[in-house]
Write a structure and sequence with these properties.
Radius of gyration: 19 Å
Strand content: under 5%
Distance between the termini: 29 Å
Largest sheet: none
Shape: globular
Low-confidence stretches: none
């Protein structure tokens, strides 16, 4: 019933709903137009925002050379969203490497990591683990076999290399599902 009320207001996509819920004025207007309680819309907005991870500061990739990160920051790219937007808009990484003076291999690695952090629950460390497990983009993650990826991540974390604890198949399945959401609306 609530979804039908939203559709009657012309809201047919998650991105459209996210846009309509982004501030109190819009939520109030939507509540009045649909009869949906405004507090319900507040909770719905919080839930939706959970699917859109916040960008990470490039400094969070602290295993990469600090000098190369500093060059990107000097060029105005301070977080994964800014880096990915610029890199995605170019035809090749060598163009960005040339304009910033960043080593092409470091830049390529950082763009792959930034791509993965667009997936819910993927931190810089988790992105590093995924790359080392052979999964270097959100589209590869979305298409991954959960059992194989789980085993690969366990191998990557042998000896508690990245964190103490176990990587469970259920968590990997949820991660793969979250990557599928990125395929649906591929943006920050």
């Amino acid at each position: 019933m609530k979804l039908q009320a939203l559709e009657q207001q012309g809201i047919a996509t998650l991105a459209g709903l996210r846009n309509e819920l982004k501030n109190a004025k819009r939520r109030e207007a939507l509540s009045n137009a649909t009869g949906i309680d405004v507090q319900y819309l507040v909770l719905l907005r919080r839930e939706i925002e959970g699917y859109f991870p916040k960008p990470f500061a490039l400094k969070a990739f602290d295993w990469l050379p600090k000098e190369e990160i500093a060059k990107l920051e000097e060029s105005g790219m301070r977080d994964t969203a800014a880096l990915y937007q610029v890199a995605f808009g170019l035809e090749s990484g060598t163009e960005l490497a040339g304009s910033t003076g960043v080593d092409a291999a470091v830049l390529e690695a950082l763009v792959r990591l930034a791509d993965l952090t667009r997936v819910q629950w993927v931190s810089p460390t988790a992105a590093r683990m995924l790359v080392e497990a052979g999964c270097d983009s959100f589209s590869m993650l979305a298409a991954a076999d959960s059992g194989e990826l789980c085993q690969a991540l366990v191998r990557v974390n042998e000896g508690d290399r990245f964190f103490k604890g176990k990587i469970g198949l259920r968590d990997v399945k949820r991660l793969i599902q979250a990557a599928g959401y990125v395929l649906s609306w591929a943006s920050f």
